[in-house]
Amino acid sequence: MRPDRIGGDSWWRQAVVYQVYPRSFADANGDGIGDLAGITSRTPYLASLGVDAVWLSPFYPSQLADGGYDVDDHRDVDPLLGSLDDFDELVTALHREDIKLFVDIVPNHSSTRSAWFREAMEAEPGSPARDRFIFRDGRGQSGALPPSDWPSHFGPSAWTRTRNADGTPGQWYLHLFAPEQPDYNWDNEDVREYFRGTLRFWADRGVDGFRIDVAHALVKDLSEPLRSKPVFVDFDNPPTGDDVLFDRNEVHDVYRDWRRIFDEYDPPRVAVAEAVVSAPRRVLYTRSDELHQAFNFDLLNSYWSRDEYHAAIESSLTHAREAGTSSTWVLSNHDNVRHATRYGLAEGVEPTTWLARGADPTLLDPDLGSRRARAATLLMLALPGSAYLYQGEELGLPEVADIPIDRLQDPIWVRSSGELKGRDGCRVPLPWTADGAAFGFGPGASHLPQPRWFADYAVDVEDDDPHSTLSMYRAAISLRGRLAVNEDLTFLPSEHGVLHFARTASWESVTNFNLTAVTLPPGTVMLSSEPLNGDLLPAGATAWIAPDESPAPI
Ligand code: GLC
Ligand code: CA
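A: This is the predicted complex of the input protein with calcium ion.
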């Protein structure tokens, strides 16, 4: 049993949470799709990493129009991934290892295959069944124009027209994401009650927490006439809480309501919001009577720059502290180009554009990317707050940038008319062994093709190498668990391009963002992202240091 961090009910404040994308983690039955039994079989691996919790991306029945974020039934398991019994076994296996479990709650939208949506399609305009979603008549004489100019995140319009039973064109429904993901109407009490019940359903099964998908989107301004909003996210105007679609003040009533449910449980259940908003707006979701944390993508969005990192850390910590919560940190997830690749791209090259334009290898330095990614991770794991890791980053996996077009699954590819390649490159099934079918992912094939070079990153290869990225993650998570006794951080004076801070009297972290080596600060190196030579910290490296005058290491 590992020692409790900032223990008890506050375990989440400084946790290491590992994101599992279930279809690509481990496949127990060989059909090419990762499943719950596969995850259960790998709990010893998760325990060996030392993570505090696992966050499971959606495993619910789904037509996979958006990687499982199109949910047919929020209270069941996709038969391809297993059953509720398999889910219970996974909870038991994780808890036996003292690992907590978060599940993904997707409250903004449903699926066109859900019972409610099918009922709505058969019901009349204006009926209670249609009121659970956002149906509207079209504009223009025959209603052939969408009800408003709102765009979908995946492009182009957020509205799709239905057909009536007799084949004539009918009303339109709203979907901020793919057409298979109709948005719920959060002004409808059935919807609110359904999600209260869904939270209880999983909490009763022993789930410890929830990750709330697009938490800022639920409540919209649906007053007529619908207001114009031609761009999905408006970076030009400061948020006011009165945007048409996002981050509206009323959305907080939902989380106040949910908090009462979380607090009914012993221990209380916790929740982290995916709220893609600015730092000051983000912490509103974490007020003491709302959710506990919110994802902070400021590091993920930072270039490899000392000043960008410094600014992101300072602002995140200040805002989190003011809100009485702790910050979260993310470098990779299932929606973004992996950080080992992002940090290897030539300066100024935007990762999704690079992918879309054929992933020109002359713009990528893979070794530089992998070095900087390790340094970024070691820095992140030294920060106060919770670190969210994405499966495969502990192996240093780069993005798979050359998936053949006919194998792509992400709706972004089709919906953007091929302008963007989408997110499949970070969702390729993990390599567990250097040999064997699908690199040990399962006894069969793998639903997305794995490149040959995945062998070099296989768990069994890195297991045996004390200098591997996997070994660094294990050492860092274990050491952090012993060192993170409080949430303090003090920046220390440092030379140009170097970020140096102290966590406690016996724990400092120093990162060299420059292109050449710098002198290490005095002290004993406890861990480093690169092998060290004398008293130099190489370019693109982080070291954890116990200052000379510090108390003896624990
Ligand atoms: C979130 C998920 C993303 C999904 C979207 C719609 O941003 O992380 O994968 O496509 O919501 O549910
Ligand atoms: Ca399977």
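The pocket of calcium ion (ligand 2) is lined by residues 27-29, 31, 33, 35 (CB under 6 Å). The first strand starts at residue 16 and ends at 20.
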